[in-house]
Design a protein that fits this description.
Radius of gyration of chain A: 13 Å
Strand content of chain B: over 45%
Radius of gyration of chain B: 13 Å
Number of helices of chain A: 0
Order of helices and strands of chain B: EEEEEEEEEEEE
Distance between the termini of chain A: 37 Å
Oligomer: heterodimer
Largest sheet of chain B: 6 strands, mixed
Number of strands of chain A: 11
Strand content of chain A: over 45%
Helix content of chain A: under 10%
Helix content of chain B: under 10%
Shape of chain A: globular
Structural class of chain A: mainly beta
Order of helices and strands of chain A: EEEEEEEEEEE
Largest interface: A-B, 21 and 20 residues
Largest sheet of chain A: 7 strands, mixed
Chain lengths: 116, 110
């Protein structure tokens, strides 16, 4: 099946720094990618929908200035956590939608962010 | 709006036991239904899916049947293994986004 790769898988950073997470569709073009956040013992929370060549659509309650999303090409979307704080520590997952397949999504491996 | 309801966990079973994880949904139209699995420390993987009523998705010994009359998509496995310990998410496709259940943690004891 289609492959979505996230990088890095693990990242530890100091409070106040920014961290970029990449999401790539390796063998297909994804016009739409989604970013999720998973809190411990909770389900995934959709953060934003990323459309190639346009601004991301953020879910209610997600700070767009803190979580910068860029979808510059059909195979790459990036999530930048700006001025990270310990409460931003979480598991971030991206997914990409394969066009024409009834909405099936393919997920990246996830990126675990720890902010010290 | 559309929603998915899963049974709460954790579900703890002994190896070789029969597994059922309940999932019901509310949706307009005819969504596709999915089960995803997240093994410890890993990302999500699609386990199985069904795109229309009465379809049965199956993979790795797991099965789920799309029941329109009961709006359900229960996950079943006849004989679970320790390696099946994971968190299982039921989801439906609505307008090309997934609506998620809360997830059910499954613990299999040897």
């Amino acid at each position: 099946g289609a492959v979505v790769s996230q990088h890095p898988s693990w990242v530890i950073c100091k409070s106040g720094t920014s961290v970029k997470i990449e999401c790539r569709s390796l063998d297909f073009q994804a016009t739409t990618m989604f970013w999720y956040r998973q809190f411990p013992k909770q389900s995934l929370m959709l953060m934003a929908t990323s459309n190639e060549g346009s601004k991301a659509t953020y879910e209610q309650g997600v700070e767009k200035d803190k979580f910068l999303i860029n979808h510059a090409s059909l195979t790459l979307s990036t999530l930048t956590v700006t001025s990270a704080h310990p409460e931003d520590s979480s598991f971030y997952i991206c997914s990409a939608r394969l066009a024409g397949f009834g909405g099936e999504l393919f997920f990246g491996e996830g990126s675990r962010l720890t902010v010290l | 709006g559309d929603s998915v309801t899963q049974m709460e966990g954790p579900v703890t079973l002994s190896e070789e036991a029969f597994l059922t994880i309940n999932c019901t949904y509310t949706a307009t139209g005819y969504p596709s239904l999915f089960w995803y699995v997240q093994y410890p420390g890993e990302g999500l993987q699609l386990l199985l899916k069904a795109t229309k009523a009465d379809d049965k998705g199956s993979n790795k010994g797991f099965e789920a049947t799309y029941r329109k009359e009961t709006t359900s998509f229960h996950l079943e496995k006849g004989s679970v293994q320790v390696s099946d310990s994971a968190v299982y998410f039921c989801a439906l496709n609505s307008n090309y986004q997934l609506i998620w259940g809360a997830g059910t943690k499954l613990i299999i004891k040897p």
